[in-house]
Amino acid sequence: MSRIDLDEFSDLIERPDGAVRREAEARRERLAVTPGSLGRLDELGEWLAAARGTALVRQIERPRVVLFAGDHGVARLDVSGRTAGTAGELVRGVLEGASPVAVLARRLDVPVRVVDLSVDTEPDAFPAEVVRHRVRRGSGRIDVEDALTLDEAEAAFRAGVAVADEEADSGTDLVVLGDLSVGGTTAAAVLIAALCGTDASVVTGRGGLAIDDLAWMRKCAAIRDALRRARPVLGDQLQLLATVGGADLAAMTGFLLQSAVRKLPVVLDGVVSAACALVAQRVAFRAPDWWLAGHLSGEPGQAKALDRMALEPLLDQSVRVGEGVGALLALPLVRSAAALAAELPEVKAGEAGAEETGAEEAEEASDEESARPVE
Question: Catalytic positions, please?
Answer without folding.
Answer: 323
